[in-house]
Amino acid sequence: MIEYIVPVLTFLGVFLLGGSYVLRTMSRRARIRQRLQRERQRRALDDPDAARPSILTRLLAAIGGLFGGKDASTTLRGQMVRAGLTGALAVPVYMGAKLLLFLGGGIVSGILIGFLDIAVIHKVLIIATAASVPFFIPNMVVSMWIARRTEEVRVHLPDVIDLLEICVGGGMGLDMAWIAVSNEIRAVSPMLADEMALTNLEMHLGEERGEAIRHMAERTGADDLNSLVAVLVQSERFGTSVSDALKVFATSMREERSQRAEEAAEKMGTKMIFPMVLCILPCVFIVAVGPAVMKIIEAFSQM
């Protein structure tokens, strides 16, 4: 009996250790999913299974679905993702908003110019122009959201790389460092933290690290993440230190950020010309020349 006790105990020990590791991994994945789910629930356009959308959202989605919103192109869906609209109703609501704005602009302009005594062809042109202007408002809104998310990633990514380099240099693995940095950066940039958490979830679900980070670059529109993928892949391929590679990459990103700031500062002088000419110069001209003009007018009036 004694000769069977040691294998049984060994098996039980390995089973318990493996089970605890699996349970810990499953609980960590569940926390990530719950955190991402809570963030999606706070968004205006969300998955209908996560939070019940408003009546206006459902109305816009129904209108957009009738006119091809469900069969949108890959490019349009990519734009929605880069804008942060990852719900299933994002594209139908987008199409429905465009159609409603187009019809609303046409109806309002038709009512306003209906009483004008002009040619019919002129009325048609005015109505078409007035309807086309609000039709492109959703495009501008989505472009603004994409630019805002991309700029936020570009601003905070050097700090993320610095934290990754510090964690990896301190002895942590790259995956654990990624998790720690995503939790640490949440107070500064919740959007970037959520994207990093989603990337970490993809890696835990079996996706390669490089592909998961490339997906993050596609979702955020930040080309610097593609450069980060190249740095990590080359570091693993050639067996160099990941910490040194991240340090060099972080230095180059800080230099690039400084160069962008210097470029923006140099453009400031040119951009200030237009408000100075349109706003400041007329006021100065009135203050400096106004009294003389008044005296000249008074002198001519007395003659």
The average pLDDT is: 78
The radius of gyration computed from the alpha-carbon positions, rounded to a whole number of angstroms, is 30 Å
Query: Can you tell me the number of structural domains?
Result: 3
Q: Biggest sheet, open or closed, and with what strands and sense? A: none
Stretches where pLDDT is under 50 for at least 5 consecutive residues are 43-50
CATH topology of the largest domain: Receptor-associated Protein
CATH C-level class of the largest domain = Mainly Alpha
CATH architecture of the largest domain: Up-down Bundle
Helix content: over 70%
Walkthrough of the structure:
With 303 residues, the chain is mainly α. Helices cover 82% and strands 0% of the residues. The protein folds into three domains: 1-42; 55-135, no CATH class; 150-268, Up-down Bundle (Receptor-associated Protein), CATH 1.20.81. The protein has helices at residues 2-41, 55-66, 74-82, 90-113, 120-135, 137-169, 174-184, 190-204, 209-220, 223-238, 242-271, 273-302. Helix 2 (55-66) packs across helix 4 (90-113), helix 4 runs antiparallel to helix 5 (120-135) and helix 10 packs antiparallel against helix 11 (242-271). The chain is flat. The termini are far apart.
Key descriptive features of the protein:
3 domains, Receptor-associated Protein, mainly alpha, flat, 303 residues, 82% helix
